[in-house]
Amino acid sequence: MIRMLKDTTLPSTARPVLNHLQQLDGIRFLAVGLVLLDHWMVGRIEGVALGALGVTIFFVLSGFLITRILLSSKDKLSDQPGGGLSKYLKTFYIRRTIRIFPVYYLTLFVLALVNEPPVREKFAWLALYATNIYIAINHTWMGTVDHLWSLAVEEQVYLFFPLLLFFVPRRHVPITALLMIVVSVGLRYALHRARLPWFIGYVSMPTCLDSFGLGALMAFGWLYRREWFIRVFQSTAWVWISLLGFVAVVVMTNYMAERSPYGYHNVWADVWERLAASLFGFFLIGKAVLGYGGPMKWLLENSVSQYLGRISYGLYLYHNFVFNFYHTQPTHFTVRAWRRITDVLPFLNSAYIFQFSFFLALTIALATVSWYVIEKPINNLKDRYSY
Q1: In terms of Cα–Cα distance, which of 165, 169, 131, 136 is closest to 151?
Q2: CA–CA separation, 328 vs 340, rounded Å?
Q3: What's the whole-model pTM score?
Q4: What's the pLDDT score for residue 226?
Q5: What secondary structure letter does DSSP report for 264?
Q6: Do 88 and 77 touch, CB atoms closer than 8 A?
Q7: Do the Cβ atoms of 284 and 240 come closer than 8 Å?
């Protein structure tokens, strides 16, 4: 890390273009797959929060991608008046709006029209990307829209992070990212010590910044410290070591759950689990940027993984409305459809994998329609606002 902080910046002609990194679509597939497994396998997979791991990987990936975009844009515009701040912000926010807002708000309006209870009741919070704030203030979850807290965190990061990276000198970006990590972990520890409800530290934007900070470090290394980046991420050893570290924290979480008066939500779960998951995401993604070989290359680059990675936003957005273990009612259309199918084919009730596959197929179908009818055509507008 000390070497990374030294000023060994690549000349501008050596900086990489913002090319598409193929294996990152595979990483998106793995992350959303962990979320779906966690949310649809309640009671069947115990002792490890796979959904939290998947969301954390998304946060690290987002930190890497937006930092790479913003620092490259800042470099490109540096010779313009005021450093090109106006175009820098305009381009970033227009492109983010095109990618994220249309399908999100269309989903909210459709769910409000069909009277999905939490959507109508909490529409303003949802529309303002403030679901995580609602959860933290009211100390309660929100039903089938619970999962939208992570999208709220991302949007709240977008509010300040572009300005932060613009005004912080390039040489201070690594220390800024390190401060984000330290402050985030410190806030989680303070909330834990104050005995506040655990999900305040889980869903609040400032307590998620260690993931984004690690992603920012990765992007800085990729853009300006390429030798350091290759040295750190070339070997898969750190991927396995960080995975073992995450597993060790999970083991300690479950060990303390049986001995702590706070049960599962002890210091290991509330403070250290996200940091351990972020470090795993850091090394997992860093190696994917360089490119895995062998079986991992196939896993990340095969056509199924690539496609599901591309539509991962829709998969994440829609899955809780297709089925939610805690909140989906017996009268919900997907549950009624499954009952009708099993009335005709009763053997499908013999194993949960059939029902899981049914929900997965519906979610993929919905995300596919969303991708081809809404997201992809609108995304083409981004070409008018290139970095």
Answers
A1: 131
A2: 17
A3: 0.94
A4: 96
A5: T
A6: yes
A7: no
Tokens of 330: 């017996």
What is the Cα–Cα distance from 73 to 215, expressed in whole angstroms? 17
Q: What tokens appear for 156 in the block?
A: 């709240």
DSSP character for 235?
Answer: S
Contact 221, 232 (CB under 8 A): yes
**Rounded Cα–Cα distance for residues 168 and 382 (Å):** 27
Residue 97 tokens read as 């709006």
Hey, CA dihedral for 201, 244, 23, 177, is it positive or negative? positive
Question: By the 8 A CB rule, do 335 and 328 touch?
Answer: yes
Distance CA 359, CA 40 (A): 9
For 227-236, the pLDDT digits (tens) are 999 999 999 9
pLDDT at 93 exceeding the cut of 50: yes
Neighbours of 347 (CB within 10 A): 8
Tokens 């492109």 belong to 95
Tokens for 95, please give them. Answer: 């492109």
The pLDDT tens digits for 195-253 are 999 989 999 999 999 999 999 999 999 999 999 999 999 999 999 999 999 999 999 99
The answer to whether 233 touches 283, Cβ cutoff 8 Å, is: yes
The secondary structure of residue 262, as a DSSP letter, is T
The token pair at 240 is 């396995």
Give me the DSSP letters along 336-380.
HHHHHHHHH-GGGGG-HHHHHHHHHHHHHHHHHHHIIIIIHHHHG
Alpha carbon 90 to its chain centroid, in Å, reads 24
Name the token pair of 213.
């900070």
Tokens 């002890």, located at residue: 266
